[in-house]
Batch of 3 targets.
Target 1
Amino acid sequence: MIVNLPLCALETPAKRVLVVGGGDGGVLRELCRHPSLERVDIAEIDEGVIKASKEFLPHMAKGFSDPRVRVHVGDGLQFVKDAPEGHYDAIIVDSSDPVGPAAVLFERPFYECMHRAIRPGGVVCTQGESIWLHLDIIKEVTSMCRGIFQGGAVSYAYTTIPTYPSGQIGFVLCTKSRDGKPLEPNEPRQPAPPMDLSSGPLRYYTPELHRAAFVLPAFAAKVLAEGTS
């Protein structure tokens, strides 16, 4: 979902995508299902995560062997700062919780750099915590993003993950204004990627689930709506 929500929301198929974090390779594996992609950069601060995943989780790490992938071991914030303006169609942030080294990936300077690095009509999708445990953090982040992605759209979506605390995890999706119009990420505009012979068919994402992921329980919708005023 962290891959297909942003990529399928785009008006034109993505060609260049940046992944920040995601050293286990799961995001890369799902990205590599998309035939339109010409280049995927991944900026991962901990090379040990990449090595461990390749050794112990080869089915998840198979995306590292895709020729379109370029691995950059180092600080994700600095990599985004150094990216050319408007270079990426999408940036996906597969980070841990906002403590320790990952805390900067939830702060305003990082989101400002991502806004600069994506093209008009591009999209950012970040790990967005759980509405059951971190609603205050989600409200703070989405409110901050609305001040950065002015003229675009900022939305929260979620999915079910049984192994996560509360059984859910969410995503903050931000789109950059194009021609003064927002691109709403809750509408799928691209088809689901075709079956990958090495990874098998998609088992979760559908266009119907894409739309449903943005429909929040009343209590969460109310709190996040308060951040728009």
Note: The chain has a mean pLDDT of 94.
Target 2
Amino acid sequence: GTPACSARIGTQELNPTQLARHVDAVYPRFARVFGTTAKVLEEESGVGKGIGSDRVGIGMRGDGTAPRFYKQVTVVDEPGRGYTVLLDGRKLKTPAKQDLVLPTKALALAISAEWEWQIGNDIRPFTMPLMTLASTAIDRVPVRKEVIIFELLKFFHTDLACCRDQAGTPLAKRQAEVLDPIVEFASERLGTKINTSDAIMGAEQSDEAVGALNKFLRELGDYEMAALDAIGGVTKSTIISINVLDGNISVEEAIAASRLEEDIQMEKWGLVEGGHDIDIADVRVRVASPSVFLQLAGLR
């Protein structure tokens, strides 16, 4: 079952195990998402066996792409379980080797499209956000939910939507106009007052507010938690995430709310091509994907 492959890094010839470890060291973010470790070498071949998404890491290149190792992508219904994606007739598995069983056909088709639409002979993992979210919901959330909740509660006091510039500045005025309604909605959703502040240490939240957020988070399903955590990671705001998940603001409004300071800087100094525009496009994908993910999963 060990893949017969090697690669050259500079002047050094690496065997499969060394290559997998090199990928882990050089691309830790990719490894966290797709599970790229020497464990991929344990995968067996054969009809009917599952194909782990971590197999992508075996041929990882310096530009973040990998060779495409499959030709046909299909979706099948597993009665009583859900829908799964097949690569050349073999079940697609998560990085943790679990079956990638999805709750709706729509989500399964969307993820299959991410695999199918890889250009030519290359796989570009960074163009597969729905696959990443599904793997997170299946592999990471069930075993790390307590850690995720702890981290979200810890950063509640420095939530971007609650931390403001000094009163009277152009940024503070823009923040009040855009963020106050977002904070107000979240306060109503949680049933408690959420504080805002221009203090350098952030906006200290009451025990009641922390408790209300804790209760809200614990009531979320695994798919919802994966989506909320993803949006919060890019917007630096659980408050904005709650607004997006509940449909109170659009993806574009969430992006604008999370980039008020950058937008004011761009208005003053101009947009830097190859910098600001790429950042905006990246944020748009990372905010839109979780929203679409929940809609396709039938949860919104």
Note: The chain has a mean pLDDT of 84.
Target 3
Amino acid sequence: TSYRYLHSGIINQGLMLVFGGNTHNDTQYSQGAKCYSKDFIAYDIHCDKWISLEHTIPRDFSADLDRFGHSVVKYNSSIYFYGGFNGQTKSDIVRFSPGQCGQVKDQGDCVASKQGVKCVWNKKKEQCEMWGLERSGKKNSVEKCMKEVRNTTAVCLAQKSCHSCLANTGNCVWCSEGCHSEKCPQRKDVKVVRDLNQCLESESNEICKNLHTCDGCSSLDKCWWNSEKQCTEKKGGVGGNNNESEEGGERKEPLGHCPVS
């Protein structure tokens, strides 16, 4: 998928539907990215995979879809996109009606379906069904993802923490201070971690490190905005009225009182 912001996103039956946004990035080689995008893509939450939904837009569809800054809501079984901006303020409403899973009769076609909803194959009933929360705990009764050969080495090597390493679907293992695919390098003193509960690094530390503003950092009690303008996990408590950390003596900015840059 491509980088973007000011897009819309909504969860619908196991998929995160993403529409439009600004995909232009002056800090990187553009490759033709546009300020006003009409991309329609989906993230398959269960299979950890991005898919394109461009084929769901009729070829003779005459509406001007390029936009960013719009809103999205779900009502009954349809998705509604409203307004936005593409050089001028828009006031139109675009409705997307996802497809159905029941008419798909083949298992492979079912799990590969790209109709705006997550289709799964019911092994007992031998039929294609729409994914729902009521099926989330029945892992062995449904087929959710296509069985495909996937090069997970790059995926695993890109993970920088124990939690992100073990939380993805790439069959990764955490090896002391690095993430590897399936097995660890054969070296001395390498501790193999395959269970999230065995990660030594605090999950809070990873969350805090990904917050890059004082307000965002200060909104979580477990995070600390330090003097180097970085968000880190709070190791000590906050004591007294001077609002200082017991660990470093640094001042914690109260929520809503962060310096204005």
Note: Residues 237-253 have pLDDT under 50 and may be disordered.
